[in-house]
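thread from #wetlab-drylab

HS: before we spend reagent money on co-crystallization trials with SN-glycerol-3-phosphate, can we at least see a predicted complex? here's what I'd submit
DV: go for it
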Amino acid sequence: NNRFIFKRFLTTIPKKDIGFVFDIDGVLLKGSSGIPQATTTLNYLSKHQIPFILFTNGGGQKESTRANKVSKLLNLHKPINQNQIVQSHTPFKTLVNKHRRVLVVGGPLDSSRDVAIQYGFKEVLRPVDLIKANPHIWPFHRYTQEEVQTWGLDPKISKVNVESPNQGAANEPIDLILVFNDPRDMGSDFQIIQDLLNSQNGVLGTTRHIKGGSSKPSVPIVFSNNDFYWANEYPQSRFGQGVFRILVESIYSKINHGKQLETLVLGKPFKISYDYAHHLLIDWRQKLLNGKEDDKVLEPKLNDSPDVSPFKKVYMIGDNPESDILGANSYGWESILLRTGVYKDGDFEKNDALARPSVGVFDNVQEGVFEALSQNGLLKH
Ligand code: G3P
Ligand code: MG
């Protein structure tokens, strides 16, 4: 009857006016352990059909694998759908039509190549393949013999022949470097990246000579995030991919007579990634409304802002003022900062320039979300 429909309106429709975007490390997880309040919070939102996605600067795995892992670690009633996850490298899939043969750096040995292949890249190399082709490329690499044998591609397949660099088909140029995640063997990753940036058209074993150097590298490089710090189980924050980027840029500049390396950097706090995440949040809301949470993955374009947003408010919940909070504030979302990760009390006093959360600072994810729900009259006390 009408009364029933009206009641349903009140309890379901307004809840779709607000959306939540959760950071993962330092908000839902600490390393490989779940933060207990994350379980109650996500279960609550799922139960009440309030749209949310996870938006992390982490990565190295397929979105579906990541969704399953988070769901298991948090023991969620309703598993996270792969459409609810944006990892730092998720937008890399928009580059597949422009680049064929790519070098994937960072991420676990047993998964990072598969991620790039799933995105649609035709030829995916990793530093371990180049080490297999010629270990002298970085004699101090930390891969075990077994790892090189198991994970390194046969040089006939990888088409890497560093002994005779100009052998044409036997040593095909690499046309893009994708830093998927924090390096696992930083020494070899670092050397190989510099080799390619300063090569002749991406051919390994060659060196270009440009008088005065150049800002434009021989092979374009994309970093998936810019985090200086991130939070795991260790008491202090740990260096992230942003530190690796600084190292790469500084040595490139040294080699190129002070020229600054041209790069593309994705992830939070950049608008390019917030737009991408916003599309997924809008799509997830629609899936909830349609009652059809299928596995068809939405693939927004890069640099494409949603024309309209159905949300009155979107709340970003993060632990890092320099990525989550700065990005959300600049994007026009509300921001909630937690004490469970990178941010520590007193940080604002030490650094005036840090972005401040629009809603406030909370002890954990549940406190933050409950405040947002209360402000919108969505929480029954
Ligand atoms: O490598 C992990 C990282 O840099 C941060 O992840 O989930 O806090 O954005 P997250
Ligand atoms: Mg975080």
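DV: The chain has two domains: 2-88+269-375, 90-265.
HS: ok that's useful, forwarding to the group
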